[in-house]
Structure formats: C-alpha cells, structure tokens
Amino acid sequence: MAWRVLEKKGIHAGVAKALASIPRKHGLISSSPCGDATKSIFASIGCISETSFSSMFQATGYCEVFFKDSQLRCYHASTQLYARMRHAETFGLKTPKKEKFVKRDSKSQPPVEAPYVPPRLQKPTKSLPDKTIDIFEGMTIVELAKQAGESVSTLQGILVNVGEKVDSEFHPLSIDVAELVAMEVGVNVKRLHSSEGTEILPRPPVVTVMGHVDHGKTSLLDALRQTSVAAKEAGGITQHLGAFVVGMTSGASITFLDTPGHAAFSAMRARGAAVTDIVVLVVAADDGVMPQTLEAMSHAKAANVPIVVAINKCDKPAANPERVKLQLASEGLLLEDMGGDVQVVEVSAVKKTGLDNLEEALLLQAEMMDLKARIDGPAQAYVVEARLDKGRGPLATAIVKAGTLVCGQHVVIGSEWGRIRAIRDTVGKMTREAKPAMPVEIEGLKGLPMAGDDIVVVESEERARMLSAGRKRKYDKDRLRKISEGRAEALEQLEEVPERVELPIIVKADVQGTVQAVTDALKSLNSPQVFVNIVHVGVGPLSQSDVDLAQACGACIVAFNVKSPPSSLSLAAAQASIKLFLHRVIYHLLEDVGNMIVDKAPGTYETQVAGEAEVLGIFELKGRSKARGADVKIAGCRVLDGHVTRSSTIRLLRSGEIVFEGSCASLKREKQDVDTVKKGNECGLVIRDWDDFQIGDVIQCLEQVVRKPKFISSQSGAVRIEC
C-alpha cells in the first residue's frame, strides 16, 4: 500500500534516485546506511513524515536486501532466487546441483516368512572374586585408598557415614575402622598385627597331634596327662578338636590340640595345623603310613610347621618301626636317622614307654624355635571350636596367640560379637584373663561363631555392633553371589547333565566344627543321580522347629552326637513320615545316609544280554491262507546260556556281527506257546520282519535293567557314591 501511495504522488523516481545514491560496502549495507537512506528519502519526499516512513521501512525486515540493488522488482524475491539471478558468492550460498534422476522400482517384493527364533537367555556374567588387601593399625586414608583402588574422597565420605572424624587424607585410622571402610567398598581384608610390645616373654608351645584314625593319638595324650578321654569318645575315635594344657615332669607346660583322624574331619585338621607351632605325627608301628597320615603331612607342610614323628604301638608283636621310617622317607619326610632334621620317637601309649623321650623332643624343638609372644595390649586369639550350651548360650573354645584376653572386653568373632562374661580354662575353672598359648572357653557371645574365626578385641560396644553388621552384610553379599554363579553354571550345564533327584537334609550336631565336618562329608555323597541339598544346619539338640522345617520341605534329619530327642518329638517325626538318623559314630552315619541315597536314586537303564541261543535248523510254513498271512520261516534253536523271553528284544548275530535287531513274533516249545525258554531247552523262534536265517546264527535275548549306584567306603574312611 505504501508503494501505491508513493506512485500516486509521483515520488517513485525520487525514491529510486535516493536509494541509488547510497554507497555500498562489499555488497552489504550496514545498519547505519539504513537510517541515512530513510533521511534521504524523507528529504526527497516532503509529504510523508520521517517517523512513520522509518517505522514502516524497518518493520518490513528487508532493509538489507532492499539496498543490495536498485531494482525494486526483486524486493519480494526469496534469497535463493535472488542468488540464482545474481552472484551467489556474495551471500556465501551454494546453488544446489542437479542430480541425475534415478527411477525406482515400483514392484513391491512379497515379505519373506522367516522362522521364529526365540531370544537367547542372557547368562549372568561371573563377577570377579574380591581382592584381599592388608590392613594394619595406623594406616592412612591414602594408603587404604591406594590398596582398595578407590578415590580418597570416596573413603572420606564413608568415614563420615560411620561417624569417624577426618582431619586430612593423611589421618591415621584404627584397624577396625579400616576394615569397616574396606567392607563398604567391597574388598576382603587381612589383618596384620604388630608383634611389638613393651613386654615380650617366652610362651609355651602349641602342639597338634595328627595322624590316621585309630593310630592311638588320644591314647598317647591320655598317657601324657594321666586321664582317659578315649573311653568317653563314641566308638573309641576322636570326633572333636580338643585343647588342653599338659604339665610335664620337668615343670614345663605344653598346650596340646587333639585332632580327629577320620577322613570327614579334614577341615578340623587344617584348623589345628594353622594355629600350632609343632605337629606330632602319630603313626602306628603295626599299620604304617595311611591316607590320613599323608594328609596330615600335607597340612603341616602347607602351614610351614615342623614335624615330630611318634611311632606308637611299639609294644605289639606285629610292630615294625623300621618299615614305618622307610615309608615316611619315601614320602619326602627327612628323618634324623637318615640325615634329616625330623625327630623320630618310638612310644607306647599302653605301656607308657618312650614318653620322656617325646617330651624332650618337643621341648628341644620349641627351644630351637625360640617361641615368644607379646603379653601386653589387645589380645589376638583363634577359635578352635564352638558349641551351644543350654544354660550358658554360645561358647567358643579359643587359643590366645598374643596379648592378654581380659574378662569384660568387647570382642568380634567372625560376624558375631559380644562382651566376654566369663573365661574358663581347660578344667572348667573361671579365670579373669588368658595369656598367650592358653586354651580357654569364652562365654557371653550374642551368636555362635564359626570354627576357625579370629577374635578381635574392640574398644566399645558401638564399634563391635558396626563391625559385626558390616561383616554380616559382606557375608550375605558373597553368599548371594555364589548362589547366582551356581545358577549360571547350572544353566550352562542344563542340556548336558541329566535330571537328578534331590535329597534335602537337616544337620544337627553338638559343636560347630562337627557340623561343618558332617556337612562336608554328606556333600561328598553327591552323585549324578542324587543331589544332597543341606537345607539347614544347627548346633544343639533337636527341636520342634527342626521337625516342622523337615515336614515343610520333605527333608530327613541327621542328628550327630546330640542327646536323644523326647518321645513326643520322635512320635511327631514318625507321624509326619520324617526319617531320623541319630548317630554318635561318623562311620555309621555315612553308611546309613549312603544306603538311603542308593535307594532313592532312580538308576540308569542299561541293555544286557539275558540269554543266547544257536540256530540248529530252519523250518518254513507254506500255503497259508490270506487271513493267516504270508509264508513264515521258523528258526529251530537251542538255548545255550540264560533264557529267551518272547517280550524282549531279539538280536541276530552272524559271524560275530550284528545282522538284525527286532522283536519276537512267536516263541514255541513242543507246539506250545511259551513266554520263556531256559538254558538247555530247544524252541522255535520267529522274528518279526526277518526270515533270512542260517544254521549257526546266534540269537541274543536283550533286556532293559535298572542299574543302581553303589555306596563305597574305603579303608581310610573316605566314602563315595559310584554310579
């Protein structure tokens, strides 16, 4: 409308002249010439106010484009069209190139019917095992962060959460706080205790007696301390890890650990070797080196503990100590008689001969080792055994390695904690404190610890609770990880391993170490056909909750070395069809459970030859009616071995090679249809879909039989299920 008004008033030429007189700069007009143009046009046009024309001219948005050329006809043209008409390089634009037109195929292809492929199951990736770092008292945050592989800021945040005041990254941490922080970041720890102290004194040696079952270990200790422990043990064999102090005739004292020799108690022997200073290897002179003897040697070598050999039962007529020495030397044990450093003592526990020589050898070995320990400071102790007492609660038998364990201290044992209420020595007498190499029984724990745990003394109850809770979380996390990895492995082997029958078992025993030993022995009875699933373990006598749990999951109860349950509990188990195995000897327990596994196993189907017959003649029936079928060839046979059954599969052998295998169509003896023909009798046989018989062919009768696994117990006490 504005241009029409300008045309009517005859001002068009004036505007064009004014626009042409404005100077250009690089083909573009800045914002200032736009204002100058407005003033110039206003000067040439007197009838229009400057303000109205300026607002109209700038509101169009084409001020810059308007001044690019004096041709007014390009005012409403687009940028692209204007660049085609003029030089496109002026605006920095590129003209799109003409591309060659490609004609597309309009024919639509029919959809291809592809078979459905189910998505593959994503197997959980196996997590890497947690690394173990060494922690010690007074380590800094920087040292802990470097070992754990975490940043200092992360550890400082964890320290604030656990209530620890942090001044700097070089702030020293206590060993308990360092363990808490390490567990939060998901790493295992190994405590390094300092042996330095203001008071370091000699300590008595800790001696572990090891050897094969029934070689006289406990009887030898009875002779040393003039008591009878073997008579109290069920079956005359040791099934616990006993710790006691023996005062020698010379006035010295020695702490002895008596380990069981049965194959099921391997973990107990390993714990005994881990805490001991000297291992006494007991070998019977009439029996020689046995499997558990070799295992005890390997445990001692793994723990880097010196060995003193005691050849027992030298009073028997069949004793041959020289043969025992040769056997030990052949197993790599360097004896003193053969130029080595291992002492050998011949003793007799029954006649009490050679005990002085054994005492002298032990004290000599201890003197050579120069055993000393720190007396002051917090105690370091090791749990040998743990049990649950009806009146006193959880009890832990421990041996102090360094420091002094005082009654009233707060301790953390594994994932359990408590305040020591009472300390008792090996004879049951209460004492206020326990010195190094002293076996004691600790009372006052909140839960039952595991045998083999270390005892950690902490400064307060709050710190004990935090450390126990952190260890429990770490234990649960590791347990769930193992379960998930086990499921992943089961998923991988799902197609390869046949389906197995599950046998759930509940285990109860008198002490914690025995529970672990019985559980490991029962798990060793796993077979490809039967899976032994330990659903629950516990310490103490049987209770109604055990019966209820067994009824809920269909399990049997194995009670080892516990008191006989009341009649009401036995009646409830019988009414619920729950099997109870009450035993005091490990031999009988494993034998009964092994026989039950054999009975429950489904077995494997195998084809075996039930009988063999030889073809003596061939008979042919011809001219039969259409209703009775075509001609038939009958093989006249004599049964050479076993029996031939009509319902079984028949195999035809010719010159030792299989010619045909099929079913029996007819079996007759003396014109009578029979089901079975035994050895020595003759019969007529017709094989379905086969009539090419020759005299001298051998006919085998095949039967499907179920083969059950076998329970095998070796002389050393090891048991297994052989399928």
Primary descriptors:
723 residues, alpha+beta, 6-stranded antiparallel barrel, 19 helices, 33 strands, 29% helix, 29% strand
Number of helices: 19
What oligomerization state is this entry in? Answer: single chain
Shape: elongated
Estimate the mean pLDDT confidence: 75
What about the largest sheet?
A: 6 strands, mixed
DSSP strand content: 25-35%
Low-confidence stretches: 5-12, 22-34, 41-77, 88-93, 121-128, 227-240
Helical content (DSSP H or I, runs of 4+): 25-40%
Kindly report how far apart the N and C termini lie.
106 Å
Give the strand line-up of the largest sheet.
Answer: 5-6-4-7-8-9
- Class inferred from helices and paired strands: alpha+beta
Indicate the radius of gyration in whole angstroms. Answer: 47 Å
**Number of separate strands:** 33
Fold and architecture overview:
With 723 residues, the protein is α+β, with helices and mostly antiparallel strands. Helix content is 29%, strand content 29%. The chain contains 19 helices and 33 strands. Strand 26 and strand 27 (657-669) form a beta hairpin. Mean pLDDT is 75; it is low at 5-12, 22-34, 41-77, 88-93, 121-128 and 227-240.
